[in-house]
Amino acid sequence: MSCGAGASDGTLAGTPLIDPSNAVEHGVGVLLTEHGGSTARRIAEIAPGAHIVKAFHLFPADQWLSTPADGEPVTVAMCGDDPTALHVVSELVRDVGGLPAVLGSLDRVRQLEEVAGFVIGLAFAGFDPNSAVPRVLSATGSARSGVASA
After folding, report:
1. Beta-bridge partner residues of 100
2. What is the pTM of this model?
3. What phi, psi does 96 have (nearest 5°)?
4. Beta bridge partners of 51
5. Residues 8-62 pLDDT 10s
6. How far apart are CA 120 and CA 33, in angstroms?
7. pLDDT in tens, 96-138
8. 109-124 vs 39-46: helix crossing angle, rounded to 10
9. 3-state SS of the chain?
């Protein structure tokens, strides 16, 4: 992976940097990162000092161009180590009509990347990923939760 814009020189130090990528085999959803690794961690390695936030990787770009069919905002799961960067990205999520859900540090980001592979694999196999995940009540007792944090 090459790193432009001087990121490897620390140019992005202190800057929130969103990782919306899905390093998966096209049409299959199998992760292409090494076992146990994640794309977000790799970006953190090659952009020293940047505050990486994994977010916006589960929904196609056109999701953000229209109102959801059911009128409910989508929940944008995210992980990151820097509270300020998580706050900035949470505000961006709200600005585009989503609900931010901070699930933890970059130590949990592999889970988000695995979920993306699962969703992509189902979609390309002709299944609706929404039907593969049970509608579970949140800790607040609703099927649709609010903001987890940030």
Report:
1. 76
2. 0.82
3. -100, 10
4. 16
5. 777 889 999 999 988 888 777 787 887 778 889 899 999 999 999 999 998 877 7
6. 16
7. 889 999 999 999 999 999 898 888 889 889 999 888 888 887 7
8. 130
9. CCCCCCHHHCCCCCCEEEECCCCECCCCCCECCCCCCCHHHHHHHHCCCCEEEECCCCCCHHHHHCCCCCCCCCEEEEEECCHHHHHHHHHHHHHCCCEEEEEECHHHHHHHHHHHHHHHHHHHCCCCHHHHCCCCCCCCCCCCCCCCCC
Give every CB contact of residue 68 below 8 A, 6+ residues apart in sequence.
Answer: 74
User: What residue type is assigned to position 127 of the chain?
Assistant: F
Token pair, residue 21, equals 């990528």
Do residues 24 and 32 lie in contact, with contact meaning Cβ atoms separated by under 8 Å?
yes
Neighbours of 110 (CB within 10 A): 20
Please give the span between the terminal C-alpha atoms of the chain, in angstroms, as a whole number: 30
